[in-house]
Amino acid sequence: MSFIRNRNTMATNSHIKSLVVLSAILVILSSCGPKAIRGGPGTRNPELDEPAMSITLDRADLEYLVSENVKALSASALWNNTIEKALTPPTVAIWPIQNATSQHIDDQMAALLSSIETYLVNSGDVRMVSKENQQQLVQELRLREIDIYDPQTIGKLGRQLGAQYFATGKVTSVEERFQRTRRVQYSLILQILEVETGLIVFQNEATRSKALKG
């Protein structure tokens, strides 16, 4: 009987040792694996968003491009002489920003629209058409294979939405390579179109460059 007890004790001790070793291995593996880090203001890594991770547009690039364009808009004759002096705030609709680059940057384009819309709403000088209504129109037009950037189309939809102005634009890029360096120059062209006439009453271009060095 004592022999059996000794064997059971030895088996139990061996099992415990195996569990300890396995736990140690799991701890080591978990410490060597990917680790999520929180960054930005108010965290231990306030400058986490500063380095560029790629040559595609990121949040810092979008903020710069939008900021430069809206500063130009707020200082323009259109804004100071027409919009701010209007008896009632004119109604503005946001139209999709055209992606004229060779990259798939749908998320970035949506972020651009939201940033521009936020500025216009917070200015208090204009009224904004619901973006949901505009998105439904865009989807319907695309299903009907209608060019959503055609000026005549924009004019008709502007009247349908009750807007006096359309805010729209285009993102372009120029890519260059030299030896082991690849550089992409992005431009955001912001336009304000007058619905009644179809004329471009404001236009500004902001640029941003990014490079990848081998």
Describe this structure in words.
The chain has helices at residues 2-32, 59-74, 77-83, 106-123, 131-143, 151-161, and strands at 91-99, 127-128, 165-178, 181-194, 200-213. A hairpin with a 5-residue loop joins strand 4 (181-194) and strand 5. The chain has a single domain (59-213), classed as ABC-type transport auxiliary lipoprotein component (Rossmann fold), CATH 3.40.50.10610. The longest helix is centred in the first third of the chain and has 31 residues, at 2-32. With 214 residues, the chain is an alpha/beta fold. The radius of gyration is 28 Å and the shape is elongated.
Q: What is the helix tally?
A: 6
Largest sheet: 5 strands, mixed
Amount of helix: 40-55%
Please count the beta strands (DSSP E, at least 2 residues each): 5
List the helices and strands and how they pair.
Blueprint: H1 2-32, H2 59-74, H3 77-83, E1 91-99, H4 106-123, E2 127-128, H5 131-143, H6 151-161, E3 165-178, E4 181-194, E5 200-213
Parallel strand pairs: 1-2, 1-3
Antiparallel strand pairs: 3-4, 4-5
Helix pairs in contact: 2-4
